[in-house]
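Dig into my protein:

:::
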Amino acid sequence: MSPSPKAFLKTFCHSIRVTALWSLPVFLVFFLFIRAWKNEENYGAYSNCAGCFWIPTLAHDLWLAALFFVLFGLGYALSDRRFSVRLLKFLFRLSGVLILIIIAADFMVGDILQHRFLWTDFLRFSGDAESGFSVALAWFAPPYGKYKAIAVFLFIAAALTACFSGKQHKKMAMAWIVLAALCFSASFVMSKFPVRYVHENVVWNVLEANRPDTRTRRVSEEFLRAAVKKTETLAQVCEQRDHPSAKTNFIILMLESWSSWQSQLFGGDEDWTPLLDGIARKNHYFTRFYANGFTTLGGEIAIILGAHPLPAEGESALMLSDFRNESAGIPYIARQTGHQSAFITTSDLSFLSLGDWLRNIRFDVIEGSRHPFYEGMKRWQFDAPEDTALYARFLQWLDRRDAEKPFIAVMLTVSSHPPFINPENGVNDFEGTFRYVDKQAAHFYESLKKRGFFNDGVLLIIGDHRTMSPLRRGEYEKYGERSFARVPMIVAGNVEMPKVVTEPFQQTDIAPSIADFLGLEVCFNPFMGNFLKKEPSPPEYILHMRGDERDRVDVYYGENAVSGYRLAGDESRWLEKPPPNSDMVSAWITTQRFGTRLSPARQ
């Protein structure tokens, strides 16, 4: 006798609920396994510690998985008779679902941007939802985009079904509690085999990764006054050229995520940018050039203002509004030397209030993705047309402007921003994206050459930061902690300097070097370098704000030495052997976190 339609429907709905419920542990195991596997593949390779990351990663993640099972076990263990108990059960299940969603978010952000899901980042970027959505949407690009979309749909459906389906089921509750006990036990045993590694936070679970760091701690008046007093004794050498090249035009081309590891010429194992390597060989290039930050924001602050991109005192992240010095950087240099200043990109200028910041530091020309030139063009991350459009627009601007007035222009590309979608075919292709970047940048160089730009112009081509991706095989073995900051730097044009610069330089050296080249008096200190001359003068100290440990500043000095400095208010300290004159270096770091915000009352 066949079941009635009502009974069949009831059985079918029950099957759906049970399937949805038990699919959640499947998703959980998938997230945990993939994260452990990625840590082992990436960090195990460059730290020369094969097999070191599986167990520690699972040890941290399994106690979070145990918490998930406990919450769902409680959500099915209690009776349904009273409303208050039913509400409590719902809250247990909802908490379990939220934990799983956070784990899933960590997985997705890691797959797109190659770093962890951080609550501070979420709050910071939530005001720019449109740009964030454009990056997330690119995650669903071919060849695997449709499978990702199906998986996301099934995950959301399963989470909602499990959250709102919770009648008392003692056997199911017992099964989940047993799973929780097994996870807790495995986590306890595995924790006896920790990874002894300088970047241990890569194995932390997502809740541990979001623990408050120490960089938000404020310094006392006494601590700050001592730092200011110490930096007042900093040695300075003021220079001014006898025969400056006052009419020289400058273009600073910032290539999104272009890194030294992608180029054989710049010391990498890959050969993804051979055309840019060719440009470097014909002109001037640096074998040891460093980004001062780990994001585009840090690169913009360092290159445009010549300021170290350190988070302001009491803040957990970089804010452009904290860097508003009008008497320094590219716009100021342009005003003082009779140049026009321009910032031209295809990116969305509303993102992180970039446009407002550029106006506040007084760029003459500011263009972004909303320029009429790009109307009707296909848009990618950050509402940006592809790099080809940026170069075409810049050349149009160059051809139409008053050629009698010299200029300093900053250009920022976007196409190679994660998740690395090649605009030529719309495919998520890491190598193909940078080969596209290489081809378009080389075409731009040739276009400038045909226009005679290099007769009285200089083109600087630089990566804004190292890719937000794990270090490559052999990269850490070759360059150690400095691997996190290595970016290529090319100088092309009419400038007398060595063909190959082997001394170390950094992004913050660009603005003072241009100022000196154009004839302004510049007072150099041990944290500043000057490279646009016959005998470049490197800085004694290079600062890099870490991205994996965001309360840590690395200080490079000597041939290859690195010292880490922990930002922790009055308890700020050196993590390893401190650099020479460490009191001066730490005082410099402290005062730089205030910048122009350092009022007379706090000096």
The two ends are 90 Å apart (CA to CA). Confidence is low (pLDDT under 50) at residues 597-603. The longest helix spans residues 5-46.
